[in-house]
Prior knowledge:
The complex is a heterodimer.
Chain A lengths: L3 E4 L2 E4 L5 E7 L7 E6 L6 E5 L3 E2 L7 E6 L2 E6 L8 E7 L6 E2 L3 E5 L1
Parallel strand pairs in A: 2-11
Antiparallel strand pairs in A: 1-3, 3-8, 4-5, 4-9, 5-6, 7-8, 9-10, 9-11
Chain B lengths: L2 E5 L2 E3 L5 E8 L7 E7 L5 E7 L6 E3 L7 E6 L4 E6 L8 E8 L5 E4 L3 E5 L2
Parallel strand pairs in B: 2-11
Antiparallel strand pairs in B: 1-3, 3-8, 4-5, 4-9, 5-6, 7-8, 9-10, 9-11
Amino acid sequence: DIQMTQSPSSLSASVGERVTITCRASQSINSYLNWYQQKPGKAPNLLIYTASSLQSGVPSRFSGSESGTDFTLTISSLQPEDCATYYCQQGHSYPWTFGQGTKVEIK
Amino acid sequence: EVQLVESGGGLVKPGGSLRLSCAASGFTFSDYTMNWVRQAPGKGLEWVSSITGSSSYKHYADSVKGRLTISRDNAKNSLYLQMKSLRADDTAVYYCASDRGYADFENWGLGTLVTVSS
């Protein structure tokens, strides 16, 4: 199985600050990497698909990038409504696997 | 508007069975691979099972293989998860999610809670 290692597990940042979350795959996944946002008590919401494509309706402050087996989700200017847990997920091969999540809080 | 609505969750004893349903609307259901994803209380997301649009292919996480069975009825726009031999570690909110073909879960239901406890 492909292991997805996400870091950090939590972070606290100020409004307007740039935030970066990383996800490392245990093997090559050819850009098949998705990012989700989940708020408490809600279902996850797709933000980024195939590493860097912005899902329709998602604010442009969210972006994704990749370098080999390392993937990054960037929030360019953190907003209060971005408080949530973020998950990466590989779609390269079964079983689909998620990272352990990164909880983002406002400082 | 795309809607996915899960039902069928509840409290069940260890070793018991349960059948979850997911009613879909607002899109051509038969064109999409469908998935079940679960989340144990306070934990992360875990993919459980997938089924292609024509039901030709089904996949399962090792943790549920042989105990959970995914199926669908395209005439009823419905997805199912038959659960048997349930264990305490199956306790979770179960979400159904549609998949555009890159295992990118674009649409999710609100989830249904399954609690396995004596």
